[in-house]
Structure formats: structure tokens, C-alpha cells
Write a structure and sequence with these properties.
The complex is a heterodimer of chains A (106) and B (519). Chain A is built from four helices and five strands. With 106 residues, chain A is α/β, with parallel strands linked by helices. Chain A has one domain: STAS domain (Transcription Regulator spoIIAA), CATH 3.30.750.24. A five-stranded mixed sheet of chain A has the order 1-2-3-4-5. The longest helix of chain A is centred in the middle third of the chain and has 16 residues. In chain B, the strands form three sheets. Chain B has a six-stranded antiparallel sheet. The longest helix of chain B has 57 residues. Classes of the chains: A alpha/beta (106), B alpha+beta (519). Chains A and B meet through α2 and α4 of A and loops of B.
């Protein structure tokens, strides 16, 4: 799994690529932790994410909670079908701003 | 061959060749000087003897060996011969053609030569003597081995009163005496040189042993004992660095290396011990976790209204799967399955908390949605690590067949009514995340013969070596293939199929299943 970060002002985008499983999820946690303090908007771009496990979900929720505590915004974009199923199954699609591959940011 | 032996041989060869060369060079240089001295000495002798005939006519003198004058001269010559230690001293007149000579006078062992005054000896006159006689050379010198022995001879001319050369005087010295005297002298010098070489050899040997061999051997022994010493619990003792040369450097390097090695060995041992401790703790946690799950092997044999079978196969690491089943009252059965996110002790502890909370709330008689809401609220409190758990809970009324259920982000169970199909349900988010989350209950009416299959994603996300997931499609196929089997058999079949698919890939997640059949 590879994570690349792009920042634009106070908005940060993490492009997550590959598999987000038990082994690799902590890396996402670290990447979120390493975000600049002033980050007010965090976007996880899952365009190239192939798989997410429950530990991956945990990191996503942790990132969401972190942004919420800071009164920032959090979105997950470009979510593919298989990963979307996982979000739907766990009901996260209703709680978090999660958009499938077709949707665009408002 | 040992280094010490090698060095010894090298030293021996070098020093011996040096000694021999030194002796030879000394011999050669001295020999030439000796020769020159010898020659000058002989010439002086010859000149001395030649002077005897300064005032006389040699031919005339020789003609009468018994004359008083001849005798006077002979005495003088004998004296020279004796005092100078010569073999022969003689004067003769070579013939015109040089093939014979006329003896004028001779001192020394005359009986050896048989020469007599006035005698003409038929004998080739040496060229050196001829040249002197003819005035072409002022003196002559030769070394020769002939019938008169091994001799060195110096020739010089005999001038008459008229200043003309009238004869040749030769002075012979026994070569053997000269040479042996020389050798006696040289022998001692050589002996001294060789003795010096011997001393040098032993000195070098001693120094090489002391400065090279012994430190290297000491170092090597120390290196060899390093591991043994450690095993026997002895601390590593630094080797004293005695010199600042390469051996000293090597010793210092070894000291550093050994210290670093000791440090790393200790660290590795500590790490291994820590890992072992952790593994043991994990093992204990895993056992506690497994023990906290209720018996899954058809525990309600006595109740003919249903059969139930459940099992969990934990991954290597302690995980957070659980199942639960218990009767709330005689005609109400609760079935719970859950999966805590993450692994390790925290996951296991969170799972125990969740399981206990759900059981307590369920026994209070609440509806499934309410149970989840209550458990969620309690799990959200004091959850610093952001753990969450997906839960499916269903309560079956054993008399009516009504199955009332709710899900907190868990995989929908499969219902078999002719064919296995996933239940459609409206799921809330997993427990432990959002305190105010509301959950929805739904109902199913089970008919006699219907089965329910509850599972965790350890099954659908079981992976083979090619990182391929087993998936819901395979799960559904396998369920349908064995839908006529008993609960126990069905679970075994699924377990078998998953294991076959995964092959030698390590089981990444807990695998938990629960099968309920309503009769």
C-alpha cells in the first residue's frame, strides 16, 4: 500500500493505493497523525484502493473523529464498488461523507 | 604451516644467504688485496736478490761456482731466501729462443730442482721472465702449478755494471702456505660473520614471536573463547592494546567488535525474551477469550424445537471475534455474533466488554435495536483507542418462529428457505463509535426447516497465497451445496472449503460461524 499526501492551503488529500489491511492500516493512521496542524479539510482519495479490512475502517473512522474534534471537514472520495459495499455494510456511508467513484465533491 | 614456522624459515633462509654472500664478498675482496701484497712482497725479494749481481758479470760468475766471490754471493742469496721465507730464489740467463736457460745461482731446496750453477736447463722460459729479460717489462709475476710445486713467482731484471740487463732473478713463494695462511685468517672472519648471523636469526625469531606471533595467538584465542565465555556467563574482558601497530589496531578493533557484539547479543536476547513474554501473554489472552465463548457443540440437544452449532477458529494473533447464544427464557433464544476491529489484547478486552454488555442487556428483555443502542452508549464511553465492534443479534421465539434481529455494521446472515440468501437488513454503524446512534429491529418468520447462518468476515475475507478473497459468492455456493446437512456438518463443510482455498496462506483473521436450524 502507498499513501501520497497533497496539501492545498488548509486542505489535505491522502491518496491511498492498494490494500488497506491489518498490516498496512497503521500506516494510514501514521499519515493522518503526520498531517499539518492547520489542516481543516481532510480528503481520503480511494480511487486506487482495492480492499479495505475492518482495521482499515477503524483508521478511516479515527481520521473522521480527529477532523470532527477540530471542527474540520472529512470526506472519502472516488470509492470503488467493493470498498463501497464495506462502507454500506457497516453503515458508515450514512454517518460519513463517502462518495462513490461517480460522485463529485459538492 | 604455522606463521611462526614460516617466519623462522624465511629468517633462516634470508640470514644464511646474507651470511654466505657476505663471507664470499669479503673473501673475494681480501683475496685480491692479499694477492697484490703478495706480489709486491715477492718483487721486493726479487729486487733484493737481483742487487747481489750489480757489480758482477753473471755469465762469468756462473762459470765458476766454487770461487770465493760466488760463495759470498750465494750466502747473500741464501740469507734472503731464508729470511724472506721464500721457496727458491734464483738467477738465470734465458737463451735467445727462450727454450732453455742457464742457471747462474739458486737458493732453496736445490735438490728438488736439481739446478746447478752453470747448468743449461732445457725448459721453456716463462714468458713473464722473457719479457723482463728482453726489457719489455720492468717486472713479471705469475702463479703456476708445475713440477716445482704450486708457486707464485716474481721476476725482475739483473743489471750489470754497464747498466744492461744480463739475467733474470726469480723469487718463488710456496702458494699453499700463502693460501692456507689466508684461509686461516678468512676462516675466523667468516666464523664471526656466521656467528653474527646466528645471533641475528635468534634475535629476529624472538622479536617476531614476541611482537607478532604471541599477540596474534592471544587475540585469536580470545576471539575463540568469546562465545564460550559468553555461554558460561563470563563478562567480556577487553584485551590490553600493547602497541600502536597493526596488531594493536586489530586488538582494538576486536575489542570494539566484541563489545558491540555483546551488546547486540544481549539486545537480541532481551528482545527474544520480550517477544516470548508477549507471545505467552497473547496465548493466555487467546485461551481466556476462547474459554469465554459458550459451548458451540449442539448445546441444546434436549430442545427439539431447534438445533444450534457454533465455532470460532482464532487467527495466530489474538483477535476480536465472538459469538454468543443463550436462552432468555424457556421459549426465547438469543444468538449474537460480533467482530471487534483490530487485533491483540485491546481487541480481546473490548470484545469481552461488548459481549458481556450485550448479554446483560439481552437478559433484561429489551428488543434487539434497544440492546445495541444501550451497549453502544456504554462502549462509547471510555474508548480512547477508538475500537469498534460489528454485531448482529437475533432473538428467536421458539414457539412462533419469529426471529427479531438488528445489526451494527455486521455482515448480514444467510437464511435458508429452499436456498441460502443473505438477509436484507438496515444496518447501523458498529458499536463504540457514535454515542447517539439509533438502530433498527426487523423481524423474520422462520418456518420449520429454515436455517440461519451467521458469520464474520474472516470467512469471506479468507485469503489464499495469491491474495484472492474467498468472497460471498463462494460462501453462498458452498452453503447451498450442503444445505441439506445438519448445522454441525454445514459448519465443517464451510470450514473445510475455506481451509482448502487458503492453502498454506496464514489465517489472517478469526473465523466465526453460527448455524441455527428451526424445526
Amino acid at each position: 500500500m502507498t499513501i501520497t499526501m497533497k496539501t492545498e492551503g488548509t486542505a489535505a488529500t491522502l491518496h491511498v493505493e492498494g490494500w488497506l489491511d491489518t498490516q498496512s492500516s497503521p500506516d494510514l493512521g501514521k499519515a493522518v497523525k503526520a498531517l499539518p496542524e492547520e489542516t481543516a479539510a481532510l480528503i481520503l482519495d480511494f480511487k486506487k484502493l482495492e480492499y479495505i479490512s475492518s482495521s482499515g475502517l477503524r483508521e478511516v473512522v479515527a481520521a473522521y473523529k480527529k477532523m470532527k474534534d477540530k471542527n474540520g471537514t472529512f470526506s472519502v472520495i472516488h470509492v470503488g464498488n467493493e470498498v463501497m459495499d464495506v462502507f454500506r455494510l457497516t453503515g458508515f456511508d450514512k454517518k460519513l461523507d463517502i462518495r462513490s467513484a461517480g460522485e463529485v465533491i459538492r | 604451516m604455522k606463521l611462526y614456522k614460516k617466519l623462522t624459515v624465511i629468517f633462516a633462509v634470508c640470514i644464511l644467504s646474507f651470511g654466505i654472500l657476505a663471507c664470499a664478498a669479503g673473501f673475494k675482496a681480501n683475496y685480491r688485496r692479499e694477492q697484490e701484497r703478495n706480489q709486491a712482497y715477492l718483487l721486493r725479494c726479487a729486487h733484493l736478490a737481483a742487487k747481489i749481481f750489480r757489480q758482477s758479470d753473471v755469465a762469468e760468475l756462473a762459470s765458476d761456482g766454487d770461487s770465493i766471490y760466488y760463495q759470498d754471493c750465494k750466502r747473500e742469496m741464501d740469507q734472503i731466501q731464508k729470511e724472506m721465507g721464500l721457496k727458491y730464489v734464483y738467477t738465470y740467463v734465458p737463451s735467445e729462443d727462450g727454450r732453455s736457460l742457464t742457471v747462474a745461482m739458486i737458493s732453496g731446496m736445490t735438490e728438488d730442482t736439481g739446478w746447478k750453477p752453470g747448468q743449461i736447463v732445457e725448459e721453456e722460459v716463462p714468458s713473464e721472465a722473457l719479457h723482463v729479460y728482453e726489457g719489455r717489462e720492468e717486472s713479471g709475476f705469475r702463479i703456476v702449478r708445475n713440477q716445482y710445486g704450486y708457486v707464485a713467482t716474481a721476476y725482475c731484471p739483473v743489471y750489470g755494471p754497464d747498466g744492461r740487463i744480463q739475467a733474470v732473478t726469480g723469487a718463488d713463494l710456496e702458494r699453499l702456505e700463502v693460501v692456507s695462511a689466508y684461509f686461516r685468517e678468512v676462516r675466523w672472519v667468516s666464523a664471526w660473520i656466521l656467528a653474527g648471523c646466528g645471533v641475528l636469526f635468534f634475535l629476529l625469531r624472538y622479536l617476531s614471536r614476541r611482537c607478532v606471533i604471541r599477540p596474534v595467538v592471544e587475540l585469536s584465542e580470545h576471539m575463540g573463547h568469546f562465545v564460550r565465555d559468553r555461554e558460561e556467563g563470563r563478562e567480556f574482558a577487553r584485551l590490553a592494546v600493547k602497541s600502536r601497530d597493526e596488531i594493536g589496531q586489530m586488538t582494538e578493533t576486536f575489542n570494539q567488535m566484541a563489545e558491540e557484539l555483546a551488546y547486540y547479543i544481549k539486545q537480541t536476547a532481551d528482545m527474544a525474551a520480550a517477544a516470548e513474554r508477549k507471545r505467552a501473554e497473547m496465548e493466555a489472552a487467546k485461551r481466556i477469550q476462547e474459554a469465554s465463548l459458550p459451548d458451540g457443540d449442539d448445546p441444546y440437544k434436549d430442545d427439539p424445537r431447534f438445533s444450534l452449532y457454533a465455532g470460532m477458529k482464532a487467527a495466530r494473533q489474538v483477535g476480536g471475534d465472538f459469538y454468543d447464544h443463550f436462552k432468555i427464557s424457556d421459549d426465547r433464544l438469543a444468538t449474537v455474533i460480533g467482530d471487534v476491529s483490530g487485533k491483540g489484547i485491546t481487541a480481546a478486552l473490548f470484545m469481552m466488554r461488548a459481549m458481556t454488555l450485550i448479554r446483560e442487556r439481552t437478559l433484561e428483555g429489551s428488543a434487539p435495536s434497544r440492546i445495541l443502542e444501550q451497549a453502544n452508549q456504554e462502549l462509547c464511553v471510555r474508548n480512547p483507542s477508538g475500537m469498534f465492534v460489528t454485531v448482529f443479534i437475533g432473538i428467536l421465539n421458539l414457539n412462533t418462529g419469529r426471529y427479531s434481529f438488528a445489526s451494527a455494521g455486521h455482515n448480514p446472515p444467510y437464511l435458508c428457505r429452499g436456498n441460502f440468501e443473505a438477509i436484507r437488513l438496515e444496518s447501523g454503524v458498529p458499536l463504540g463509535l457514535f454515542e447517539d446512534e439509533e438502530y433498527v429491529s426487523a423481524d423474520l418468520e422462520l418456518n420449520s426447516g429454515d436455517s440461519l447462518f451467521l458469520y464474520t468476515d474472516g470467512i469471506t475475507e479468507a485469503m489464499n497465497r495469491g491474495k484472492e478473497l474467498w468472497g460471498e459468492v463462494r460462501l453462498k455456493e458452498t452453503l447451498n451445496l450442503h444445505q441439506d446437512k445438519t448445522c454441525a456438518e454445514l459448519l465443517h463443510m464451510i470450514d473445510h472449503a475455506v481451509a482448502e482455498f487458503a492453502g498454506d496462506a496464514e489465517q489472517a483473521d478469526d473465523i466465526t460461524m453460527l448455524c441455527l436450524k428451526y424445526n
